[in-house]
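User: Teach me something about this protein's shape.
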Amino acid sequence: MFRRREPVPFAFVAEADRFRSNVAPPPRQRASAGQIAARWLLGLTIVAGLVGSLVLGMPALSSPASTPAQQSQASQGH
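Assistant: First, the predicted structure itself:
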């Protein structure tokens, strides 16, 4: 009535979770002072570019409320 399942040919993949290696990975190398400075400089450049674009773009996005609406000469009947 109930059949046993046949073994999977790739059963070693299922057993890979139980496998533990006794070989430790090499330790990560610390970044040099030049690399750290370069990362900070890149980050500051990106932030300064975003802030600068926001500062320069804000006047273009704001609508002038104090200036009267200009009318064309055609609307004045000339």
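Now, about its shape. Residues 41 and 47 are 10 Å apart (CA to CA). The helical segments are 11-14, 33-61, 73-76. If you'd like, I can walk through any region in more detail.
User: That's plenty for now, thanks!
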